[in-house]
Amino acid sequence: MATAQQFEDLHVWQDARALVKDINAASKQRDFYRDIGLREQIRRAATSTMSNIAEGFERGSRKEFIQFLNIAKGSVGEARSQLYVALDQEYLNETRFSELKAMAVALSRRIASFIAYLQKYPDNSRVCLPTKR
Questions:
Q1: Domain interval for residue 65
Q2: What is the spatial distance between Cα 71 and Cα 131, in angstroms, rounded to a whole number?
Q3: Stated pTM of the model
Q4: Would you state the pLDDT for residue 10?
Q5: Of 12, 91, 128, 131, which is the most exposed, with the fewest CB atoms less than 10 Å away?
Q6: Where residue 68 sits, what CATH number does that domain have?
């Protein structure tokens, strides 16, 4: 497996970015957009997922990275729960809801697998190595 040199190399971060993009697009629909509280909360939850993956990676230590990945996993769960609110309020149709939910579930699973992978390393190991210039 290739070593990531920056958080942008991580598939979990790339997937989180795609989820943010799709949730932002979905929440621009007229009725959804008017529900400012839900719109902003679901956007913050999705963005938090992406941001916590990046922040954990940049911290450098495996232990802190795992901690931030767990927070990211919680945030994607929060976004998934809010998708149900959007469905129940009829801001999303069943098809769009299912697409976004599938993305969130896949991301959550990928984060969980990544956490399990990282837990195989010693506590004092570093996540990212400084790049040579």
A1: 10-118
A2: 27
A3: 0.88
A4: 96
A5: 131
A6: 1.20.1440.60
